[in-house]
Sequence to fold (294 residues):
Amino acid sequence: MAAPHIPNLNTLRRGQGRPFGRGRGAPSSLSDVEDRVSNDKIVQQTDQDASVSRLSAVEVGYLDDPYAKLFASGPGQRRFPIINRGTYVRTRAIDNLVHRFLSSPSPTPKQIISLGAGSDTRFFRLQSHSPPLTAFIYHELDFPTNTSQKISTVIHSPALSSLIPSFTTSSDLTSLSSSQYHIHPIDLRDLAKPSENPAAVLKDINPSLPTLLISECCLVYLSPSLADTCIAHFTTILLPLTIPLGLILYEPINPHDAFGEVMVRNLAARGIVLQTLHKYWSKDAQLERLREYG
Fold:
C-alpha cells in the first residue's frame, strides 16, 4: 500500500477544505432518465465481475475465502494470472488495513461502512475469524438490485445466515438488519440531496462509534463532485468531528501509462466510465483530494 496506516480524517474535518457541490441534480428529460438507468445497470453488473475474479483467485490458491463460491453466478471462470494477482493484492491490502483498524484499542465497538459492497464477503470472513476479532458493527451500502441479490443468497445459505445473529429483512428483501450486520439499499447519489434528518437516510449507523469507511472501486463510478459530496456526508454531516474516522479508498490511477490506456479502452468498450479517474489520476492527486475533504 502507498500509506502504512489508515489516516485519521479528524485532522481534515475542520471545515478548511473546499465546499462540496450538490451534484448534477435530477435528470432533465426522459432520455436522460433512460441513459442513467442503463448506466446504473452496467455499474451494477461490475459486482458480478468482481465476484468471478474473487472465485478465480480462490480456486488457484491465491485467497482463502470459503464464501466466494456462494456469491458467484454459475461455474467459476479462470482469470488471467495478472488478474488473479491483482485480486490477491487488492483483497489482502484492504484486509490488512481493516484488521489494523479493528485491532487498535477502543473502549467501544467499532463500525465499518462499506460503500457499494455488492457481493463482497469481508463481513463473513471477519465474523468467522479465529481467534474472534474485537466487537464491530458492519454496514454495507449498495443499489437495491444488488442488496436484494445478496440478501437472497444469505437467506438460502446456512453457511452465511448462521454468521448473522437474529437478523430481520424488509418485505421486499432489499434491506437486512441485525445487532452486528446491516445491509442498506441506497443509491449513493441520494446522499448529495439535502435532508432535515441525515441520520434517517442511513438508519442504524451509530455516529458515536469509531468508524472506518471503505470505498473499493465504488466512488470512481460517480462524478467527482458527487463522490466528494458522498464522503462529505460522513465526514461533515453524519459523524461528529470528535469521532475517529478513517477511509480506505481503492481506485485505479495512472490512466496515461500503457496499462492504464488499455484498461480505459477495455472498460469503455463495455460502456464503463471511471468518472473520477482523470481528476484524481495520480497518488498525489488522491492525497490532495483527502486533504480537501472537509
Observations:
- The chain has ten helices and seven strands.
- The beta strands are 110-115, 136-142, 168-169, 176-177, 181-185, 211-216, 245-250.
